[in-house]
Design a protein that fits this description.
single chain, about 500 residues, alpha/beta, Rossmann fold, 3 domains, six-stranded mixed sheet, 24 strands
Length: about 500
């Protein structure tokens, strides 16, 4: 069996849940030093396969071998002990503990009955150096960036002698620079014979990171390639089962009327001297590297972290939002980058989330009218094609459907301006296409739209114009006819005029 015999071998894996076949007779090989990219829409079976391999689920049929030996993990601990670790999109570190304590959690070195913190720091430092980061092991995890936490997770896996790493959406919360560093780390680890199962919705990075590709659809393996160099169009076709002619709809032509006018906007430590005009029916993209100030600018416009200098006019009127409620009342809404923390109440149902911004309109006296809530939810569930029952807890929906619920709660208010911060983060390719179509239709109806994204092709594909930030400074605005990844990146690293 060659390298496959030394690596992970899965044969005929099948998993059934009540009323659902989540995985059906799936084969997979992850050889030492190789990166297998696993693609598929939400619900395709990717998570189920990863959970079987990492010991969370047991397969109903099929078998696995690791390093030539039978592999039947009864728990994640069994999988880790055998050499398989899964690093989730949302890291599982304990934020109140130090980096070193997280790396060796459950295995802390002792001197007598006490933790030997000197030995802990030395051992943790060795593994942090292996992943190429200079982090003090005594640093509390809560002080780390998302990218740094991910590196700590990988260091933890290496300290457990992981031979196969499962990375679930590893770049979803990273900027391009941070993602490049992660790819460099993967290159280094595969030279040390670590194998990877790499799950991602970002098709543009497949060529960079993958040695081979496996596509799942409806729980079955439907396509595979022994290379990562596959045209995105072919990947999309395999994932959705049909040809996708155009990923990004052409943006509509904006109207001449200025809808949002921003001049000299700034907030200390975040951004400074930002100015632009958003026209009615325009899609304005905002690009920049991680830390450029994109999200901070969005939150200032929304009143979540108000600007300290400059001026804003919304539909011709002075607009200085001090709170999100003020912004919503004036007609500006934000679809935030972290929908789970900032956009939704995960414990509530779909209809409760949809109703939240419209409680006054849905109430009769002190009580809500259930029939009005149901009508509102039914209307927007149909319009946005949300897959899920009204009474279903929103936390149980896929990422794409959760994003649509965030939109469903705002759109009944007929906002003048909608800001999308990372609109398709963690969303599969089919849901992405639906969100792109929705963004374009909002603009066609005269809404002003701002799109912030770490994915340059997304910004360039959707926007009429792109504003670029670098370290909090505006370095340029490009018209659609001028746009290219090269020009945007040049401005993003500070080679701009501020125009």
């Amino acid at each position: 069996m060659g390298d496959e015999g030394r690596g992970l071998v899965c044969r005929g894996l099948t998993k059934r849940f009540p009323g659902l076949v989540a995985l059906e007779v799936v084969d997979l090989d992850v050889a030492p030093g190789r990166v297998v990219v696993l693609l598929g829409e939400n619900g395709a079976g990717k998570s189920t396969l990863a959970r079987i391999i990492s010991g969370i689920h047991a397969p109903d049929e099929g078998y696995m071998r690791l390093g030539g030996a039978e592999f039947e993990p009864g728990s994640p601990r069994d999988a880790i002990d055998a050499g398989i670790a899964m690093i989730h999109q949302e890291t599982n570190l304990l934020s109140q503990l130090s980096v070193g304590e997280n790396i060796f959690l459950g295995r802390l070195p002792l001197r007598g009955a006490l933790v030997d913190y000197v030995a802990l720091a030395a051992s943790a430092k060795r593994y942090l150096e292996q992943v190429g980061v200079d982090i003090d092991p005594s640093t509390k995890v809560e002080r780390l960036s998302v990218a740094a936490r991910q590196h700590v997770e990988i260091a933890k896996a290496l300290s457990q002698d992981a031979r196969v790493l499962i990375l679930d959406e590893p770049t979803a919360a990273l900027g391009e620079e941070e993602a490049d560093r992660l790819f460099g780390l993967i290159d280094e680890l595969r030279r040390k014979d670590v194998g990877f199962l790499y799950i991602s919705h970002r098709l543009g990075e497949v060529r960079r990171v993958g040695d081979s590709i496996v596509v799942l659809r409806d729980g079955r393996r439907v396509a595979d390639w022994d290379t990562g160099d596959v045209p995105v169009e072919r990947l999309v076709e395999a994932m959705v089962g049909r040809s996708v002619e155009q990923v990004y709809p052409d943006p509509p032509r904006p109207r001449e009327q200025a809808l949002l006018r921003v001049e000299g906007l700034g907030r200390a430590g975040a951004f400074r001297d930002v100015g632009f005009v958003l026209r009615r029916g325009e899609i304005l993209g905002i690009a920049g590297l991680a830390g450029a100030g994109r999200t901070e600018l969005a939150r200032a416009l929304f009143g979540a972290e108000p600007a300290e200098s400059g001026s804003i006019r919304l539909d011709g009127e002075a607009f200085a939002p001090r709170t999100p409620a003020h912004a919503v009342g004036a007609g500006l809404v934000l679809v935030p980058e972290d929908r789970k923390e900032q956009g939704l109440v995960l414990g509530l149902s779909v209809e409760d989330n949809v109703a939240l911004p419209s409680l006054a309109e849905l109430a009769e006296g002190p009580a809500l009218r259930p029939s009005a809530v149901r009508r509102l939810t039914a209307e927007w569930t149909e319009k946005l094609r949300i897959r899920g029952r009204p009474e279903q807890p929103v936390r149980t929906l896929s990422g794409g459907n959760q994003q649509k619920v965030v939109l469903a709660k705002w759109l009944p208010r007929k906002p003048k301006v909608v800001i999308f911060d990372e609109p398709t983060r963690g969303v599969d390719v089919g849901a992405k296409a639906a969100i792109y179509k929705l963004i374009t239709s909002l603009a066609a109806d005269g809404t002003g739209v701002i799109v912030i994204s770490s994915e340059l092709p997304e910004v360039l594909g959707l926007a009429n114009r792109v504003l670029v930030l670098s370290e909090g400074r505006q370095t340029g605005i490009l018209e659609r006819s001028e746009m290219s990844e090269k020009k945007v990146m040049s401005l993003a690293v500070g080679h701009g005029t501020g125009a």
